[in-house]
Amino acid sequence: MSTPPAPTRAPAVECAGLRYRFGDHVAVDGVEPTGAPAVECAGLRYRFGDHVAIDGVDLDVRTGEMFGLLGPNGAGKTTTIRILTTLLPVVEGEARVFGLDVSASPMQARRLVGYVPQQLSADGQLTGRENVSMFARLFDVPRRERADRVAEVLDAMNLQEAADRVAATYSGGMVRRLELAQALVNRPRVLILDEPTIGLDPVGRDTVWDRLRSLQAEGITVLLTTHYMEEAEELCNRVALMHRGRIRAVGTPAELEARLGPEATLEDVFRFYAGDSLEEGGELRDVRSTRRVARRLG
C-alpha cells in the first residue's frame, strides 16, 4: 500500500506581517489572515421531513489534500456534499468553499467546485466531446475558450481518441473519466466526487485512482466519498467517519487505526464507529441507486 502524498499546494491566502506603502501612504499595514480551508462546515444540519439527515456536522478540508468522507449508506455523506455543491440549501449552520459562504454566494461558490455525482451524469446518446461541451455551457465557460477547454480536459483524461464516439459505447472506466472531464472543464479549485469508482473493474478503478492522484499533484483539492476502505487508505491524506448524520472521527488512516491497536485496519475503524453498517446500512432507495449505477458502469 502506497502512502498518499502530503498536500503540497500553498494555502488559498496567506500573509504574515504584510505591509506596503505608496510614498507616505500606508496601503497595507500588518495584515495576517490565516488562509481559508478549501471546504468548511460548521454546525451543519439538514432534515428531510422528520428525518435528520445531518446533525451538527463540523468539518474542514485543507487546501491541496485528498480527503475521504466515509460512512454507511444513510450516514449523511451525500446530503453534506449536495449542500456544499449548492444542490440543497443551507438551512442551519454554515458551509464555505475557500471562504465563500455557499448560501450567500452560490454562483461564486459553484465556479470553484467540480462535482461528480454517484448517479451517472453523462448522456449516452451524445459523444464525449458533446457531453463536455454541454457542461462548459452550463458552467458559463466563455464561448471563445470552450473548444480549447473541452479538448484540454478530454486530453487530460486520455479520451481524445474516443471523444467523437457516443458515450454509450464507452467502458465503465471511460464513462467515469468522461465525468471527471465534465467536472474539470470550468477549472475548479476543489473536486467533489460521490463514490467515484462504484461498479468499476480493477483496471477502471486503478485508472481513476491515477487521474485523481495527478489532479491532486496539480494542486486541486479532492473530497470524495467511498465505501471501499482500500481506496481510502490508498488515496486519502485524511478521512472522516460519518454515522447517523454526525462526524464520529477525523484523522489520517494511520492515526485512526492506531487508536484501536497495532493490528487494526481502516475497516476495523469503520466497524468500530458504524457497527455492522458496512453490510446493513442505508435505505432501500440507496441500495437501488447503488446497484443501478453499478449495472450501468459494469
How many beta-strand runs? 12
Averaged pLDDT: 84
List SSEs in N-to-C order.
EEEEEHEEHEHHHEHEHEEHHHH
Determine and state the CATH class of the largest domain.
Answer: Alpha Beta
CATH architecture of the largest domain: 3-Layer(aba) Sandwich
Report the major sheet: 6 strands, mixed
Label the overall shape. globular
CATH fold call of the largest domain: Rossmann fold
SSE class: alpha/beta
Cα-atom Rg, whole angstroms? 20 Å
The tally of structural domains comes to 2
Query: Low-confidence segments, ≥5 residues, pLDDT <50?
Result: 8-34, 278-288
Helix percentage: 25-40%
Strand order of the largest sheet: 8-9-10-5-11-12
N- to C-terminal distance: 26 Å
The CATH homologous superfamily of the largest domain is named P-loop containing nucleotide triphosphate hydrolases
Can you tag this structure with a few keywords?
6-stranded mixed beta sheet; Rossmann fold; 298 residues; 4-stranded antiparallel beta sheet; alpha/beta
Description:
This protein is α/β, with parallel strands linked by helices. The protein folds into two domains: 38-112 and 190-201 and 214-298, P-loop containing nucleotide triphosphate hydrolases (Rossmann fold, 3-Layer(aba) Sandwich), CATH 3.40.50.300; 119-187, no CATH class. 37% of the residues lie in helices and 24% in strands. The protein has helices at residues 77-84, 106-111, 128-138, 143-156, 172-184, 202-217, 229-235, 253-260, 266-274, 277-280, 284-297; strands spanning 18-22, 25-31, 39-48, 51-61, 66-70, 92-97, 100-101, 113-116, 190-194, 221-226, 238-243, 246-251. Helix 4 (143-156) packs antiparallel against helix 5. The longest helix has 16 residues, at 202-217. The protein starts with 17 loop residues before the first strand and ends with a helix. 43% of the residues are buried.
